[in-house]
Design goal:
single chain; 144 residues; DoxX family membrane protein; cell membrane; transmembrane helix; DoxX-like_oxidoreductase
């Protein structure tokens, strides 16, 4: 089971997708701390979440932690499941109301990053960490 979770190829493209998803999640998590009124606590309060302070900082921390794991390619598949769950929740809490108020195309425009992060996370669950990932190094070192 451990080998399957860590197994990956040395594919450059997979590494690029991993970096893309990792950079976006890490950046979004950091922004929840830098701009709490717009991206963190204030946003969760606007969405009607109970305990918006808790949610803002907790979700920001999760995004940073798993985003960094993806950047390094460590536990890529597990990290990608987490980012997939985060982006799915973000989509349903923020984009459904856009659809209700402004329609399909406005929702699609507003969710382009969400869609890319969703598909990127799915891809990484399937492929693993790819080129220059810690998963690749670990698998080669301990599974031969």
């Amino acid at each position: 089971m451990k080998n399957h979770l860590l197994k990956t190829s040395d594919d450059y493209g997979t590494g690029l997708i991993r970096l893309m998803v990792g950079i976006v999640f890490t950046s979004e998590g950091i922004q929840k701390f830098l701009f709490p009124n717009e991206r963190g606590t204030g946003r969760f309060e606007e969405l009607g979440f109970p305990f918006p302070d808790l949610f803002g900082y907790f979700i920001g921390s999760i995004e940073i932690f798993f985003g960094l794991l993806l950047l390094f390619g460590l536990f890529t598949r597990i990290s990608s499941v987490t980012t997939l769950l985060l982006i799915t929740a973000a989509f349903f809490t923020t984009k459904v109301s856009v659809f209700d108020e402004f329609g399909f195309w406005a929702m699609m425009h507003g969710s382009r990053t969400d869609l890319c992060m969703f598909m990127g996370s799915l891809f990484l669950i399937y492929k693993g960490g790819g080129f220059k990932s810690f998963d690749q190094y670990y698998f080669k070192k301990y599974s031969e």
